[in-house]
Design goal:
It is built from 10 helices and 2 strands; from the N terminus they run ααααββαααααα. It has helices spanning 8-15, 20-32, 36-40, 44-49, 69-78, 97-110, 121-135, 138-145, 150-157, 159-166; strands at 51-55, 62-66. Helix 2 runs antiparallel to helix 5 (69-78), helix 7 runs antiparallel to helix 8 (138-145) and helix 8 (138-145) crosses helix 9 (150-157).
Length: 177
Amino acid sequence: MRSDYIEAETFEHILSALTIENRLALIVSLTTGLRIDDVLHLKTSDILKGRFSIKEMKTGKTRRVRLGKKLQEDLLSIAGRFYVFEHRNDVKRCRTRQAVNKDLKRACTLFRVKGVNVTPHTARKIYSVGEYKSTCNFERVKDLLNHSNESVTVLYAMADIITERNNKNKKINVPKI
């Protein structure tokens, strides 16, 4: 099932109900546009640098990532020995995206968000819509998301409009914050 777009303010409100590790993982995704799997595989040694290259798991493409000082400090405060986001049973493995998704679903239930599919990938859609609205440049968003195909970028950059149209006839409950 595909993830839906929701307003950034609503998503940030939902993030307040997550565990600190899951919240920070999604904040990194919101800030950088990285997929949640790539965020969860961040190594503590990379975070110490603040600026590093990452090889995206889905595409195999390399991407340069820069974190702000505050986000870097927050990540280091919860970082494990090997991975920033450690697995709960094994410090040599990273947290799973399913664990983040489960926590996100719990928070959506808590805030009675219904009719939209909020997943960790929603953060990437919020990032792309925000970048497109600030630049009005599909090519820039395409580069930021590391997409090869511009038509895929259009789906991300206009996710707010697409989700609104798809949900027009559905009964949805996304509280405005």
